[in-house]
Structure formats: structure tokens, C-alpha cells
Amino acid sequence: MGIRQTWISGMLLALTLTGCEPPSAQFANNNRVSNLIPEAQLGITEESDGELRHYDGVIGTLDGSFGTPENLIAWMKLPIDFGQLEGTVAESPADVEIDANQFYVAFDGEQDDIITDKQLLLNSGEYEDTILGITRYDAETGLLTVNAEFEDSKPAAGDRFVIVGQVLQYGRELYMTHCLHCHGTTGDGNGPTAEYLNPRPRDFRLGLFKFTSTNATTTKGARRDDLEHVIRQGVPGTYMPSFLLLKDDELHAIVEYVRFLSMRGQYENDLVTILEGNFSEDAVKSMMEGGTERSEIIKDLLATLKEDFLLDAADKADNLARFWEAAEDESALVIPGKPRTPDTPESRARGRQLYLSAKAKCTNCHGVAGLGNGPQTFEYETDPTTNEKRPAPGLHDDWGNLVKPRNLTTGIYRGGRRPLDIYRRIRVGIKGAKMPAFGGTVLSDDEVWDLVNYVMSIPYEGKDAAPVAGRQPAEEETGHSENETETQTNNPTVTQDQVAQQSGSGEGR
Amino acid sequence: MSTMAPEETGAPLPHDHAHDHHDIGFVRKYIFSTDHKIIGIQFLITTMLMLMVGGALALGVRWQLAFPYESMPIIGRLLFAAEGGIISPEFYTMLFTMHATVMIFLVIIPVLAGAFGNFLIPLQIGADDMAFPTLNMLSYWFMWPAIFCFGISFLAGGGGPAAGWTSYPVLAAIKEAAPGSGAAQTWWLYAVTFVGVSSMMGSVNYMTTIINMRAPGMTLFRMPLTIWAMFITAILQAFALPVLTAAGFMQLSDREFGTSFFVPSGLVVNNADPTVGGGQPLLWQHLFWFYSHPAVYIMLLPAMGMVSDMLSCVSRKPIFGYKPMVYSMAAIAGLGFIVWGHHMFTSGMNPALGMTFMVSTIMIALPSAIKTFNWIGTLWGGQLQFNAVLLNCVGFVSMFIVGGLSGIFMAAVPVDIYFHDTYFIVAHFHYVLFGATLFGVFGAIQFWFPKMFGRLMNDTVAKWHFFLTFIGFNITFFPMHMLGIAGMPRRYADPYLHPYLEHLLPMNQLMTMGALLMGFAQFLLLGNFLMSMFYGKKCSRNPWGANGLEWTAPSPPGHGNFDVPPICYRGPYDYSSPEAEATGEDFILQTTPPPEMPEEPDSEDESASQ
Amino acid sequence: MKKFWCLFFIFWPIVAIIIFWISPGMNWWFPGESYSPLGAQIDDLFYLILWIVAVVFVGTQIGLGYVLWKGATSKQDDKAWYSHGSHSLEVMWTIVPAGILLFIALYQMDVWAQYRIKANFPENTLTAPIAELTARQFEWRVRYPHPDRKFKSEADVKKWLRQPHPDDLHTVNDLRVPSGKPVLIYLRTEDVQHSFFVPKLRVKQDAVPGLVIPVWFEVQNRAGENEEPELKGSSYEFLCAELCGWGHYKMKARLVAQPEKEFKTYIDELQADQNEDGVSSDDEQE
């Protein structure tokens, strides 16, 4: 008997340890938050006039603005399409029996969003300000099932209601299925799968995205289109796969949710920045060494939290909204001023010259042969946050990851392979990484196009890869010796001599 | 049913060898024992524990398929709290990889060859122990390094091997290719090697014992079918295992020393440098399946043998077609070596080879069919004892019919183009490995438990266990045929991402309910086993009224097994024979001498053993 | 209780048969009828085997149920039938299944030979590949040859496969083929083993590292429920059927079969998109 009892009590113990309730997903806080003193993180509760009042610190303010993954907050200040559907309660047909938790509705406009599991707020009639959870919606009849039963009377026909945040919530659901494993609940690029991936998944919290079409001088932000492009096409050469078959509304919802996470991360950084100067652990320690009482500092903090902090935070929020709005602005979009220069040997040769020139300095990183092994990759960089030399030589991006300049011989272009994409990589740069933006002044449009033509020809140099020209007759044999050995596209065999020799030969269209 | 202790026949011999090791300590007697019975029981208990581990992993898999990317109970809270209990896809990959690994290498192979092979071979052939008792002990203790290595592989480098139990390169051969394939996959390979060493030691031992240590009069065609099955299995294992071990070492060196047996040049995995070297992934598939297809029969034949023995006993009737049974087992083993390519029909190997493998594969259904007909023939006209043993054996036959027939679909190459790597194949091998083998094992536990512990297991609990397991099993696995026909691929963490599979979610949820039922039913087996060990009804030597030599030994048999070295006078299946009726019973022990020649065993090697 | 167990063992095959019977109606069956000749042939072979298997299943389960029932209803003091078997029965149930199995095996050969043996490939498909399909973790990359590129021989195709060309057209997760005629793609992988699986067309072929495998199939002109007007063709989902890592299930892509004319238009559009410079054409952004 004893053995069986041990079994049972063992299982009970396991149950008590783990609990029965499923854990709820939580947003994680930035490392910088933990540098603050606990009071600055969590806020201070003050007793005045016999009443307890709590003044939020960073965490409370942040959660108050963005919520938790299971209870998102639509902060209307931010330029996000949270989704908003308005409608009216409709008359029920006389001959149909419906349950106590059902009633008919009519939406104001076309309604094709998924609203199951979303919340509905009645804002007129008997049930004004009642929030109901939608458990089912039948789009054909307009019959809505909610999570509450109406005992006596149902919402009357004509009562107005609104559903807010269904797009964001839908985005979160899709994010949980498609993106969470790598990018993490918080969008910190630290999901459970992340540690196995090279390069690491994007951390959205800096608000920076690498492959954008926005002018780097006016904004560092990314457009919705840029995010959509990356999600649809994937990022070749990384583990970001193409999600081409997502439907438009799904894609839109995911993009909005990613922007939401991004803004949350930025706002978190902003809030920390406000308090970091005076109320980080280090600052408080040095002040106390200077003779200030800790209680004084806390009093100071309370005063800040009561007023300045809120004002600063509001400012930061405005900036944040402007940051994202600026990226969406038409003027931020980079469009070449001229059509692409025809891809001639001459253009490529000019591109090659530019590539080697001190003006463009491409070779510093990408190397003379385009292998991504320029001298910069052997330098020890300085970490801007600690002002110390990095432990490993090479280039680091804003997230602190070691990044390799693109090996241009492989034919893999992470930001897209169209001439326009490459043009934008040169013009706009890669935000957050060391690829600078060669904006209007450094290189002219013609020069950029020459460079594009040259870069796009690098993978084919020295290989028997003659194009079948659409505009010129087919030129199968170009006079190169037949390359009979297995030539891997990623096999860096092109030497500088070959490059120079080939770039002049008639391989163009 | 009648029970009786056999009379000792002939003049009692001095039982010197039976009682001369009384004073070995507890450790030597029960832990580092060289006694085949203790080793068999050790194997049995270890594999039952591993069955629970493997089952828990399976429930994890089923949970994810029923509630994809929703909070997983317990595991979700412990490991994926930040994601709200949503497991990661590589964790799911680990779950099914380790489920298969544990079930195959630590449950089914050791429970058949290790537990029952060890326990039954000497007893059924009338030997006092295995030919190499120390080797036998080592074969058990080599399981533990394997279990240890598998255990480490959960913890080492990224949460477990994640390349499937087939460990196909390049996924398994390059560290960058799969998360958790860092150190974990390497430990997995070590573990498989240890399991292989353990099995190999067992095989050598079984072959030697069966060839050399049969009791006088135990001719080859008087051996119980269990022994035939164990013998053929041992041969299969001895020939096939070295190939897997060698292939395992090749993969190990691919991973650790940068050789390229299985890695072609120019692959870019996880943004690492392109691979060099001109290996061939198909080579691994050939080597792996050269072992693993025969391994399927290693996982089935012993159960077939034991079920034959049990069915004959519970029907009180000789086995129908003893020799066809033996020949068909030999045919399965022989053909088993030339059918491995049917795992590779879509792999891009030479299509002409596909045709050859198809013919041999389809023909292997023939001996299986003959065996099935013979089992039904055995039940035909029998005086059936409806106890848990019979139920499990009939369950075995019934499920084996399904598993066998579904195999024909996949043997047919064009149809396999569609069914390859869908749930149809998952249904097929679970019907064979669980439906057939495990029901056979459940029956065998019930049947030979009295011999192991001298007590009977509770028949009512065992019937409930069978009832619930059978229902749970069919709810879980029968719909998998439908999933396969609907084109649901295996090893998908979230099949419903694909619109044509979305409508299968409710079916998967039902299946998970079945799996939970089946999982909890196993506590009945475990409870029954443990309780009966200490509190079961005591029994005499031959509680089932069976014929085999093992039933002439005491229950449990002492060291050296038999009071008197047995002499075999007849086949093991002479139930209800006229000779038996003459004694007033419906069975006649193999040691009962025929009346016309009372003292002479009809074997040529009597002098050697006496 | 004995009879209960007999009924138990008779009951479940009946349930199994019923489930199989209702499955097509419940949509637990093939993902729609096949839209390729190969698929139709596979389905026919499947049904052939299904019928044979069903007969055997019913026969053996009835046999099993019958002997159980007989055993359950026999009286306690009845003697079991003392029999070691029957030679003629053994011969019968060896020869008959052997014949049936051999028939099944031989009957399958043709379809297999037609689709997998290179000598039987439809004429000219080997030298006119539609595309090269490259699987990688976890997506499908498609490379079409330039529409004007004509291959003279298989060696010529191999030369093209060996390396990228500047005028190749690239897409991801979206494979287009002309419908109503045999088409051939070359299948390869950039990293680990994958498998190209189009459930609705019953096409499956592993993509093995180090090998480039030609796969041919034909999508019929009738589109049925797969018609997607906005794609100007019929769309068939394809996915990966060989474990390729943690994201195995994510490799979702579509195969679009279009009439020849629409396919040409698509390739032209693709070419325009491929040369997109943001200025020359009007459709600037997607």
C-alpha cells in the first residue's frame, strides 16, 4: 500500500508546485529598468489626508499605457491602427429563438475583421459602459454571442456599441503563432528559439528596422510597407522565412502588433532615460556617498514622479508618435531621382571605380573583392554604452551584435534583390547597422546606379553565367573558358585580378 | 482451471548446483545479479518505468497537436513561463524525437529481448542459466549508461535532440542545423551506441544459450515458439546492429571531427560557412534502415512468439500449424533484411531499386498473413479461458491485422508517394508497435508474472487495464489513418497553419483525450504489478496448466531454476491430447515421458547434458 | 462476461468500418479529388488496395469473432479440438494471399515507372524545366530561367543549374507552372533534407542535399475548387514532408497552375518586378 500512497502524494506535490492555472504571458522589462532603484521602477505610495495614493514608476507607467499581452491597451495617442468597429444593436427576427447571451447587431460599415474573443463596449442605452466578451459572431445573420447572460432585458435595438483593439488583438494572436518563438513575447528578439539562430532575431525595442525605404536624414523609423515587405519576402540568408501566404488582413494585424511592441520598447527606454540621471542605483549610491540621505532622494523622486516625470513622459510619447508618423510620411520615402542606368560594362566599370574610391569607401568593410572582409572587420570597436573596447574585432550593430558586412559574391541580398532595393540599401543605408546612408550629397543618383550595377554583377564575375539578354540576341558563349568544375555560388574564388579583367569584358546586355 | 505441481519424475538427482549459492549478499543477489531471472525482472521494471517516461513525452506531443500554441500544463509553467506556457517548436521536435527514442530503444527492444528473452530462454529450454551470466548482467547494466546519456541529452546544449529518431543527416550531422543538436545529438548517439552494445551482448548470449544449453530431448522443433522467436531475433540483431553502430560512429565523427560521410559540399546552414566534403546523406538512410527495418521485426517477433505460446495455453489447444509458424518467422527475418528501402521510396534513390523493394516488401506481408491465420486457427474450437491473457492476445491479433494491412498501402510505391511521412504511417507503426507488441507484452506480463514472483496478478484489474487501454488506443490511433489520408504530415508542431488541415483540429482533440485515457490506464498496470508483487494471491508451480518446461520449476524458481534437470519428451503444445486425457488433465508437461518409453529421452545429445 | 468480450472484439471492427465508410462524407478524406493525372492514378491504386484490404479485414475479423464466439459459448466440460493444424489449409492460405500480393505488387509498377524513371518522362520536359525549386530552412526559393533561355540539351540544363545567372527570375514560396501539360522542375536544397509535397496533386519528392532531382507532374486545366481568380489560375498548397528542423511546419507555399498565356504574362510581370528601379514603371510599390 505504501508504494501507491507515495505515488499519489508525489503527484499531488507536483501539482501544487506547478499549479493548475495556466501561466499568463508577461512583457519582460528592459535591462536598463533594473538599473533604477526599486522605488523608481515600482513607484511610491504616499499617505496624505488619510488616503493612500500611488505614484507609478517606470513599470507602472509603461504597463498603464500598453497593458499586458493578455490585456492590451489601445493608447490612442500612438499612430497604430488598433482597430475600431462601431455598430448598432439590431432588431431580432420574431420567429427565431435565441439564447439569453445572444443578440443581433449591425455594423456601420463593412465588417470582415475577426472579432471572436474581442471585447465590446456598449455606449448607449440601458447597458451603457458595459463591457462584454464576444464568444461567437455569425457574420451571415449578425447574431452575436457574448460571455454574459441577460436576465430580464437584452440591449435594446438601436443601442450603440464599439469594439476597440480587435486588429491589435488579432495581431497578437497571430504573433503568438508565427513570431513568438524567435522574437519573444516582448519583441526583444529573445524567444526560446532565438539562442540557436545566427544572426539573432530582431529586437524591436529600439524602434529600428534594418531594411527600410525611408530617408535616413529625416527619420530613423520604418514604414508599414517596409515591415510588410520583410514579412512577405523573408530575409534571405537568415532564419526569417517568407510568410508570403498570410492574408492581407493578417499581415496588417501582425505589422500593427510589431509596431506596438516596438513603440512599447522605445517608450520604456524613454521612461528610463528620464529617471536614469538621478535615480539609478549608481547615481543614488554616489549621492549617498556625497552625504545625501536616502530618504531625501526618495522624497525628491516622489516629487518628480508627481509632476516632472509625467510631463516628460507625455513629451516623449509625443516624440514617439511623431517618430512613427514621420516614417509614414510620403516625403520620407526614398525614390530614385532617375531611372536605372542601363547595365552596361561601362556603367559597371564606373561602379567598380566608385566602389574602390575614397568617396564611397565600400572596400573598408566589404573588401576589395566584395567578400565582406574589409579592414574595418579587423578593428576593435568601442562599445558606445560602456566606452570600452569590444571583446571581438569587427563591426557591431546598435543591438551590440557582431555583424559581418555582406559578402557581395554570394548573390544573397537580405533587403531584397531588385535594383530598387539595392539602390535603397546604398541611399538609405541599413539602420541600426554600420552601413551608412549615402544620401543626396555624397553620391549622385547616377553614381548610385553605377554602383548598383556593379554590385549586382559581382556574383557572376568569372563565372560562366551569361545572361540571355531580353533586348539583345542570346550570347551563350562569351569567350570565357568553360568552367566545368562545380562552381558554388558561395565559393569565394574571385580574385581582384579577375574582377578587373572581367569588368571590362562584354558580358552585359 | 486445474493447477498442479508436477511430480518429480525418475530418481531424484543430487541438486548440488541448485542450492550451493545461498550466502551471496543482497547486492549480488538482487542488484548486480548474474541470475537470468533477476536480470529479466530488472529489465522489465526498468522498461516499465521508461514506458511511463515515453508515454509522458507522447502526451506532450498530443497536447500540442490538440491545443497548438496554447499553454501546456506543467511543462509550460516550468519552462515557458515568459511565453505564457506556449512551448517552442524545437521543444515539440524534441518531444517526438525522444518519445520515439525512449519507446524504441528503452522500452520495446529491451522489454522483449531483455526482459522476456532473459527470463524465458533458460526456463523454457530447461537450462539452469544463460551461457554467459556475467555478460548477461553487463547487458543490463549497459542500459544505464544509455539511459544516462539520453538523460544528459535533454539537458545538454539546447533542450534535447531534435532530428527525429531517424536522425537523418544533414539535420543531425551538422551542429548548426538544429537547435539542441549541439551536444544533445552527440549524447544521443552515445546512448544509441550503448543500447546497441547492450543488445549485442544479449544477442550473443541468447544464440549461444539456445544452441548449446537445451535440455535433453529439447529438439529444435520441440522448442516453444517464444524460443524460436527469440532465436531468430537474436540472429537479426547480431547481423543488423553492427551496421547501425558503425553508422552512428560515422555520424559522430561528422559532428565532432568534421568528417563528411553524410555531408555534401556547399551547404549553408544557419549562416555558417559552406560545408566542404563530398558525403552523401542517402548513405545514412541506407545504413540506418538496414538496421532499423530489421529492428521493426526485432520489436515484433518475440511478441509473436509469446502470443503463440499464450494463445495455445488459454485455448487449451495445440498451436495451429507449428511448423508454418516457425517457417514464417524465419521468412520474416530473411525478407526483413531486404526491405529497408521502402522507407526511402521518395528519397530520390534509383527508382528501379524502388520497384525491387516494393516487391520484397509486399511479399513480407505473406508470412505475417500466415501467422495471423494460424492464430485464428489456434483459437478455433478451443476451450477458451477468458482471462486477461486471452484478451491481450486477441487484442494483439486484432490490432496486428490492422497494422499489417495498412502496411500494404505504403509498400505500394505509387500510393506511398502520397502517404510517405503522413500520419498514415504513424497510424501504421503504432498499430504494429503498440497495438501488437505492447498488447502482447501486457499479456506476457500477466502470464509469466506468477513464475517471476510466485504470485498471481489481479485478473479483474488487468481486464480493466486492457479494456481502457484498448479503447484509448483505438481512439488515439485509428483516426490517424484519416489524418494520413487527409494529407497531414508527421512531425508538425502546428499542422493547422495549413488551411487544408484546419478542419482536423477537433479530431486531434478527440485523439488526445484517447491518449490521456490510455496514459492513465497504465497506472492500473503499474499498480497491479506492484501490488501483486507483494500482496498477490500465491500460486503453485503451474497456475495456467501449461506444458512448457518453465512450469515444472518452482514459482519463483530458485538459483539454478529446476529441482531436477528437466528432460523433454514432447512438444510444448500438446493440450487436450489423448495422452493428456489419459492423465485426467487437459495438458501434459513436456517432461512427462510417453508411456511406451518411460525412461529414454528421444534426443541424441542426452549424454552431453546428463 | 465471455460474450461481452466477444462482442467487444466484434464491435470495434464494425466501428472501424463505419468510420471508414463515413469518412469521405465527413471530409476526413483526401484533400479534394486529385487535379493531376498522377494523383488520379494514385487514388485508383489506393482504392484498389483499399477494397482488397477491406475484404481481408472483414474476413479476418469475422473469423476472429467467430472463433471467439464459439469458444465463449462452448460448454465448460467440452473438450478443445485436438488439432495440430491442417496442411491443406496452410497451403491454401499461403498460395491465395501470395497471388493477391503479387498482383498488387505488379499492378503498381507502371505508374511508378511512368513518374520516376527518367526514360519514361514526357518528351522534352527534361530540357525545358519550368523552374529550379530550392528548399531552405524554412521556405521555398524559386528560380525561373529567363523566358528566352532555351536549353539545347540536358547538359545545358545542368550547366544552368550549377550557378545563378544574372537574368534568372527569383521568387519565394510561390511556384507558378503552366497547366494542362507536363511540367518539370528541378528540386534541390540549400541546407538540410526537405521534401516537396503537394497534397492536392499527390506529388511528393524529397530534396536531398547534394542532389538535384527532376520532378515532373501535370496539373489539369480544370481548376474546380482551387480556382483563384485573382491569381488567374488554380492554387495548390505545398509544404515540407521531411523533418527539416524546428520550423518544419512553417514551410507553407503555394503552387499556382495557370493557362500557358497567363503563365507567360506572370513571368513577364515577374521580370518587370525583378528589374524594378522605382521610376521606370508605374506600379512603384507592392
Give a quick set of tags describing it.
heterotrimer, A: 509 residues, alpha+beta, Thrombin, subunit H, Cytochrome Bc1 Complex, Chain D, domain 2, 3 domains, two-stranded antiparallel ribbon, 14 strands, 36% helix, globular, disordered C terminus, B: 610 residues, mainly alpha, Cytochrome C Oxidase, Chain A, 19 helices, disordered N terminus
Task: Describe the overall structure.
In chain A, 36% of the residues lie in helices and 11% in strands. Chain A is of the alpha+beta class and 509 residues long. Chain A folds into three domains: 84-164, Thrombin, subunit H; 171-332, no CATH class; 345-466 and 489-503, Cytochrome Bc1 Complex, Chain D, domain 2. Chain A has a six-stranded antiparallel barrel with strand order 5-6-9-8-7-10. In chain A, strands 1-2 form a two-stranded antiparallel ribbon. In chain A, strands 3-4 form a two-stranded antiparallel sheet. In chain A, β3 (67-68) and β4 (71-72) form a beta hairpin. The longest helix of chain A is centred in the middle third of the chain and has 32 residues, at 248-279. The N and C termini of chain A lie far apart (87 Å). With 610 residues, chain B is an all-alpha fold. Chain B has a single domain, classed as Cytochrome c oxidase-like, subunit I domain (Cytochrome C Oxidase, Chain A, Up-down Bundle). Chain B has helices at residues 26-31, 36-66, 75-79, 89-125, 133-141, 143-155, 183-212, 225-256, 281-298, 301-314, 322-336, 351-379, 388-411, 413-419, 423-453, 459-485, 505-535, 578-582, 606-609, and strands at residues 455-456, 537-538. In chain B, α8 runs antiparallel to α9, α8 (225-256) packs antiparallel against α10 and α15 (423-453) packs antiparallel against α16. The model of chain B is unreliable at 1-20 and 603-610 (pLDDT under 50). The termini of chain C are far apart. With 286 residues, chain C is α+β, with helices and mostly antiparallel strands. In chain C, the strands form two sheets. In chain C, strands 4, 6, 7, 9, 10 and 11 form a six-stranded mixed β-sheet that branches. Chain C has two domains: 2-25 and 32-71 and 93-119, no CATH class; 131-274, Cupredoxins -  blue copper proteins (Immunoglobulin-like, Sandwich), CATH 2.60.40.420. Chain C has helices spanning 2-26, 37-73, 87-116, 154-162, 260-274; strands spanning 131-136, 139-144, 169-172, 174-178, 182-189, 194-198, 203-207, 213-218, 227-228, 233-240, 253-258. The chains are: A alpha+beta (509), B mainly alpha (610), C alpha+beta (286). At the B-C interface, α4, α12, α13, α14 and α16 of B face α1, α2, α3, β7 and β10 of C.
